[in-house]
Design brief:
Layout: H1 2-10, E1 17-22, H2 29-37, E2 40-46, H3 52-57, H4 70-79
Parallel strand pairs: 1-2
């Protein structure tokens, strides 16, 4: 992503990117910063449920982290430079 950001800067940001990601993205602040710098405009976060029992049952354990809540991780991604929206 660093290389993409550098290429984008060198060429006047000709490309716009959209992607989807797990809320695990919030755990990698360097990646978040590079994505914003590379002109990734939209990130769709996959949040299957806010119910931890449902997440455990479906083995979506990446959405359960004891260090930070799901909401805190969503805010981390939002604060990286993207705005929230519904699609």
């Amino acid at each position: 992503m660093r290389d993409v950001a550098a290429w984008q800067r060198a060429h006047g940001f000709p490309l716009t990117f959209f992607t989807e990601a797990s809320v695990d993205l919030a755990e990698d602040e360097e990646l978040l910063k590079c994505m914003v710098e590379a002109n990734v405009q939209t990130v769709f976060l996959g949040i299957e449920s806010t119910d931890e029992d449902s997440l455990r049952e479906t083995k979506k354990l990446q959405n359960i982290r004891p260090q930070r809540t799901l909401l805190e991780r969503v805010h981390t991604v939002q604060n990286a430079g993207w705005r929230s929206g519904a699609g």
